[in-house]
Write a structure and sequence with these properties.
Blueprint: H1 2-20, E1 39-40, E2 46-50, E3 62-71, E4 76-80, E5 83-88, E6 91-94, E7 104-108, E8 113-121, E9 130-131, E10 135-139, E11 147-150, E12 156-157, E13 167-169, E14 173-175
Parallel strand pairs: 1-4
Antiparallel strand pairs: 2-3, 3-8, 4-7, 5-6, 5-10, 8-13, 8-14, 9-12, 10-11
C-alpha cells in the first residue's frame, strides 16, 4: 500500500508541476523571454524615446516628432509600420503611413536602434476640426501591446472626414552606424 501511495503522490506532483508550466516564459503574457532570434520586436524589449521634436509653433504649421526605439533584448525584426494613435478630448485617431511610403523590414541586434517620424499639422485649439491631443500611444507591427506617452506638441488638425487627422507616420529607418 505504501508503494501505491508514493506512486500516486509522485504522479500528482508531476501533474501539478505540468499544470503550472506556462511554456517557459515565467507567466508573462508576452514572448520576450522565449523570443527566437529575429522574431518580431516587442515594446517590452525596447527603450523608447519620443522627441525632441520640431514642433509646429502655430495653427497650420507642420511639425515632426521623431521616435527612437533601441533594442534591449535579443535580435528582433521590425516589419511594417509602427502603430500610432493620438488621444484627447474623449476622442482618438490612428495615424496612417505617409502617402507613398513603403514598409521596410529591419533586423535589430541588441543595442541597435531604429527611428520613425510622426508628421502632423497643428490645429487651432478648440476648433471643431482639431483633436486636442494629450496622449500618444505606440505599438509595433504584429503586436497589440501599446505604450503611452505624453503628447506635448499641441492640437492636431483634422481632415474633412471625422476621426482622420492631418498626420502620418514614416517607415522605420535604421539609426546610428
Amino acid at each position: 500500500m505504501r508503494a501505491t501511495s508514493l506512486t500516486v503522490a509522485a504522479l500528482a506532483a508531476a501533474l501539478l508541476l505540468t499544470a503550472c508550466d506556462d511554456g517557459g516564459n515565467g507567466g508573462d503574457t508576452d514572448d520576450s523571454q522565449d523570443r527566437k532570434a529575429g522574431s518580431a520586436c516587442g515594446l517590452d524589449e525596447m527603450a523608447v524615446q519620443v522627441g525632441p521634436a520640431n514642433a509646429a509653433p502655430a495653427a497650420g504649421d507642420t511639425g515632426n516628432v521623431p521616435v527612437t526605439l533601441t533594442n534591449k533584448g535579443s535580435r528582433c525584426t521590425l516589419k511594417g509600420f509602427p502603430g500610432v494613435d493620438l488621444y484627447g478630448s474623449g476622442m482618438s485617431a490612428g495615424l496612417p503611413a505617409q502617402e507613398g511610403a513603403k514598409a521596410v523590414k529591419l533586423t535589430l541586434d541588441e543595442g541597435a536602434a531604429a527611428t520613425f517620424t510622426i508628421t502632423y499639422e497643428r490645429g487651432e485649439a478648440g476648433a471643431e476640426d482639431t483633436l486636442d491631443a494629450k496622449t500618444l500611444k505606440i505599438s509595433l507591427p504584429g503586436a497589440t501591446a501599446q505604450q503611452s506617452y505624453k503628447w506635448s506638441y499641441g492640437p492636431v488638425r483634422g481632415e474633412d472626414n471625422p476621426g482622420v487627422l492631418k498626420a502620418s507616420v514614416s517607415p522605420f529607418v535604421q539609426a546610428g552606424d
